[in-house]
Amino acid sequence: MLYFIEQCLNGVQLGMLLFLLAAGLTLIFGIMDLVNLAHGSLYMLGAYFAATFAAVTGSFIVGALLALLATLVVGMAVEVIVIRRLYGRDHLDHVLGTFGLLLFFNELVRLIWGPAGMTLPLPSEMLTAVQVLPGIYYPAYRIVIIAMTLVVALLLYILVMRTRIGMLIRAGASNREMVSALGVNIKLLYTLVFGLGAALAGFAGLMQAPILTVQIGMGENILILAFVVIIIGGIGSIRGAFVASVFVGLVDTIGRAFLPDLLRLFLSTNAASTLGPSLSSMMIYMLMAAVLVFRPEGLFPASGR
Amino acid sequence: MKKVLLAGCAALALTTVPAAAQQKTVRIGFISTFSGPVAAIGNDMRNSFELGLDHLGRELGGLPVEVIYEDDQIKPDVGVQKTLKLIESDQVDFVVGYIWSNVLLASLKPLVDSKTVTVVTNAGASQLAGELCSPYVFSTSWQNDQTPQAVGLYMNQKGVKTAFLIGPNYAAGKDMLAGVAATFKGQVIGQELTRWPDQLDFSAELSKARAAKPDAIFAFYPGGAGVQFVTQYAQSGLKGQIPLYTAFTIDELSLPRLKDLAIGIPGAQEWVNDLPNAANKKFVADYKTKYKSSPSFYGAQTYDAVALLDSAVKAVKGDLSKKDDMRKEMEKANFKSVRGNFKFGNNHIPIQNFYLQDAVKQGDDYVLKTVATIVENDQDRFHDKCPMK
Amino acid sequence: MSAWFTPRNAVAAVVLALIALLPVYCALTGNYFLMSLFTRILILAMAAVSLNLIMGYGGMVSFGHAAYLGIGGYVVGILAKEGVGSGLIQWPLALAASALFALGIGALSLRTRGVYFLMITLAFTQMIYYVAIGLDRYGGDDGLTIYRRSSFGDTIDLSNRMQFYYLCLGLLLAVVYLVWRIVNSRFGMVIQGARSNDRRMRAIGFPTFRYRLVCFVISGAICGLAGVLLANHTAFISPAIMHWTRSGDLIVMAVLGGMGSVIGPAIGAVAFLVLEEELSRLTEYWPIILGPMILLVVLYARGGIDGFLAGLRRG
């Protein structure tokens, strides 16, 4: 039982990581109707910036703050130079255009930082496991991730639902012309939202850097997972992204933890240990396909769109 | 746009006209990965190969050398395409390289069909050691199972009774786990294969290992995944509780990133940078001077390939059409390896020592040091299946 | 000037002539690499044409079309490994398997639209990709070498490279013709109508779901054929053939060439692969050039190469 709780905790923690990335993605998707494959690149940049600044300043926290600022700036610059021209285009154009950006950023990072990758070392007091329940030890840093993500989720909710900026953002999402006719600088608003999305991606990148390491292409594998999350959750819904993140995290982790053992009950050990990983890698995709077959717009379709 | 395209076609046609006319150079095709996250491995191999050529005055057996580097992008089909290009278009005399078993296996058929003398400097697929061995294909690395077999032996020496094995779910990963299990005399109480190459988080597997309460954990994660695994192992607090044994997980490429986290985690390797022989001292010292970093075993294996090819070209006095004479000379392994003693088995896979290496801190630097010789003159367990005797 | 003589047709004719004469050039110079490269290009062109049938005409953007390349290839590889070498058995089975998978995937995926469709097709391809990695007997992640190419008795010898090249070229032309006929048939009109206004088409009384599903299956089967050829060409098959970036490459080829015509994607495949080859020759950082180029095509040359050529005539 304790073991099961520990694995659930692992699942929730993976879900939190996914949420940080998915939140920015779904925000941009929901408001600007933009599919952004380069979101993973911003995630990667966040991690590289954090590792670099932390090495220069010698402080994890200062490095992280500077990295957040840097990804915000890069995100806004990318919006002004490229993304802005993609609004209102076909989704196919978004996919291709941002795919081009992704290729560009991967090579740019390789030119600047070299191919070897970097590390963002944790402060040594984070390198321990804490007893969260009697008999359950959990890595301290992962608890920090869970807590920080919950804080970000809450702040995001307050920003979008309870502030004037959030109101404008929501209004801009449902009727762009009307909002700009009312004298709101919608261009600037979009740039700010894209920057916010980029900063969220950067935050995700730098939070995971100490666990998942910093390397080229690190954004691509997790980006697909993040897309799975926002599709299951329903595009544009932050609440949907949150629920789907935890769901996907749990399904993936529980699948990996228990499926091979389960298969061993029916199959030979050898067959089970090869089939197990293949099957558990497929689980989240099966989950997504199943959700879409029964709810073609995801679990929480954003209303009125 | 169309004109550009046509011009491109024309350029392609022109640049690929064979240069067979200038016979008095040795043309070498080099296949490795130079793009994406594992380009660090490819770079280390290329650096070492270049250094090896520098040491010979950029001549093999007295003939000037021309090397054509090709990037396989870790994709088997791209690897075949590049291999075909080297054989047919560039008409190279030798092909060197290959990091990945799957790229090598895909490219093996054109190499063998064209009887191109090939030196594999990393990929250790069991098929190459067994039924697919070829008179013209040599390896300066190992067969996949050998290194983990050595780890298994070391675990026996350490009195480990129960072990939990973790590795990625692809052929080399399975080879590695099978290798440990083959020599480890204790009980394997659990085995986990993880998604490859894109598993991000190993917490589920580490929790499982913790719950199984083994004496030791064995792991195989090459490249960036190794950094990821060892980092997460340390963060989980397991480091003080259950010792980790590794193969191909901690090397000179990952050590600068792992730093303190790698200290005290043993691994087996056929080459360590401090092996006490003259060839190795020269290689390591000159590499550090030229490239400002330490060479890895990927590099060492590739450096050896240069000397091996040199011996072949010398033996035929530059007449590169005498392929059979060249391979007979190569079978003698008549060169100074950075590994010290080195000879080929019947399947052209080295028979060699395996060492235990440990990460230690020297001043501000982190280095790998030889601790012990685990096994001497080890031969892979597939050589019986090779039809060459 | 006759209506047939347009810059676009002139260029198409020149390219076709160059491609048809390439083996002669190779035989004269003794350099067969170009032929091998172009065999691969012709095969991927076929895959891009098949993708464009559903994407350009049907508005179904599949981000998982590489799956059918893999299925076609794996059927050939698995049968060859099990000792069935005859192309007369391998090829029909491969086409049937691709069509069957397309039927299943299409039946479920076509319930969704737009980005959801894109993602669900990706999901199915990822599943097939992981199944292939789990196929231990057939090499798993390492892939499977095909020691003997499909045999057709004495009629065609696939290991003769020139015959194989012309077979690929002939099949590509046949596929282009087939797709052209489909697009211009009543069936094709329904598909295109469903792309622009599905609700109206249904109101008129067309069961558009079935039409689109049939179109999806045809496209999958053609792509499966490309997979069969690719497996025979490289004499090798591995899960990497189904990696999601390969599906992305196919989309890029179609868009680069121009989705508005049947031949566009084929031109796009030639351009994309030659560009990749040339750029990687230029610098190992070639994606840093390719990426912005794709972006520029998307932003400023939406019709692709074919659209550009067609535009020359209009002035």
Q: Which descriptor suits the 3D outline of chain C? A: globular
Quaternary organization: heterotrimer
DSSP strand content of chain C: under 5%
Helix content, binned percent of chain C = over 70%
Strand order of the largest sheet of chain C: 1-2
Low-pLDDT parts of chain C are none
Low confidence ranges of chain A: none
SSE order and pairing:
The complex is a heterotrimer of chains A (305), B (389) and C (315).
Chain A: H1 2-32, H2 39-57, H3 60-81, H4 91-113, E1 129-133, E2 136-139, H5 140-162, H6 164-174, H7 176-181, H8 186-212, H9 218-233, H10 238-266, H11 269-294
Antiparallel strand pairs in A: 1-2
Helix pairs in contact in A: 1-5, 1-8, 1-9, 1-10, 2-3, 2-4, 2-8, 2-9, 3-8, 5-6, 9-10, 9-11, 10-11
Chain B: H1 2-15, E1 26-32, H2 39-55, E2 59-60, E3 63-71, H3 76-89, E4 94-97, H4 101-113, E5 117-120, H5 126-129, E6 137-139, H6 146-157, E7 162-168, H7 171-183, E8 187-194, H8 203-212, E9 216-219, H9 224-235, E10 244-247, H10 255-258, E11 267-269, H11 278-291, H12 297-315, H13 323-331, E12 343-344, E13 350-362, E14 365-378
Parallel strand pairs in B: 1-3, 1-4, 4-5, 5-6, 7-8, 7-9, 9-10, 10-11
Antiparallel strand pairs in B: 2-3, 11-13, 12-13, 13-14
Chain C: H1 7-29, H2 33-57, H3 66-81, H4 87-109, H5 114-134, E1 144-145, H6 161-183, H7 186-196, H8 198-204, H9 208-234, E2 236-237, H10 244-257, H11 264-282, H12 287-300, H13 304-314
Antiparallel strand pairs in C: 1-2
Helix pairs in contact in C: 1-2, 2-6, 2-9, 2-10, 2-11, 3-4, 3-9, 4-9, 7-8, 7-9, 10-11, 10-13
Could you give a quick summary of the protein structure above?
Chain A has 305 residues and is mostly helical. Helix content of chain A is 76%, strand content 3%. Chain A contains eleven helices and two strands; from the N terminus they run H-H-H-H-E-E-H-H-H-H-H-H-H.
Outline the structure in words.
The complex is a heterotrimer of chains A (305), B (389) and C (315). With 305 residues, chain A is an all-alpha fold. Chain A contains eleven helices and two strands. Chain A has a two-stranded antiparallel ribbon. The longest helix of chain A is centred in the N-terminal third of the chain and has 31 residues, at 2-32. In chain B, strands 7, 8, 9, 10, 11, 12, 13 and 14 form an eight-stranded mixed β-sheet that branches. In chain B, strands 2-3-1-4-5-6 form a six-stranded mixed β-sheet, with helices on both faces. Chain B starts with a helix and ends in an 11-residue tail after the last strand. Residues 1-22 of chain B have low confidence and may be disordered. Chain B is globular. The longest helix of chain B has 19 residues, at 297-315. In chain B, 61% of the residues are buried. The mean pLDDT of chain C is 90. The radius of gyration of chain C is 19 Å and the shape is globular. The two termini of chain C are 15 Å apart. Chain C is an all-alpha fold and 315 residues long. Helices cover 74% and strands 1% of the residues of chain C. In chain C, helix 1 (7-29) runs antiparallel to helix 2, helix 2 packs antiparallel against helix 9 (208-234) and helix 7 (186-196) crosses helix 9. Classes of the chains: A mainly alpha (305), B alpha/beta (389), C mainly alpha (315). Chains A and C meet through helix 4, helix 9 and helix 11 of A and helix 5, helix 10 and helix 12 of C.
